[in-house]
Amino acid sequence: MGRGKFKGKPTGHRHFSTPEELLAGSSARPRTFKKEEAEVEQQQEEESEEEVEDETEKRKGIQGLIEIENPNLVKQKNMKAGDADVGKTTELSRREREEIEKQKAHERYMRLQEQGKTEQARKDLERLALIRQQRAEAAKKREQEKAAKELKKAETHK
Question: Composition bias, kind Basic residues: at what positions (predicted)?
């Protein structure tokens, strides 16, 4: 014969108490336990009333039930190079300092690039001058060809 879903110990079957036994068992508690339970409930009610008064912001999930203070939890600080103060750099982490230095170096490089003082800017300007010269030569050549065509047309019409 099958015992069902729950298999008990090999020594015997599972025992379930009836609702009558449960009701009878609840009144069989010792009186001292009932007194302690009542005191604990009163303390909890008083504490919950104080918490409701003190707590102004609403918390999600179990955050309202448990107070958590994690000293290792660091809020992330995103900072741009322009916003950073040189005096405050001692308070920043190594990564933040490196990021700020990197941004400042990039800004310096871009300023020099605009002024044409970097090697790359010089090469770009040389290339640009060469391209302008080639375009000017090509335009002259087109003008000469156009003038030659017009001259040729004028001769054939005569």
Answer: 1-16
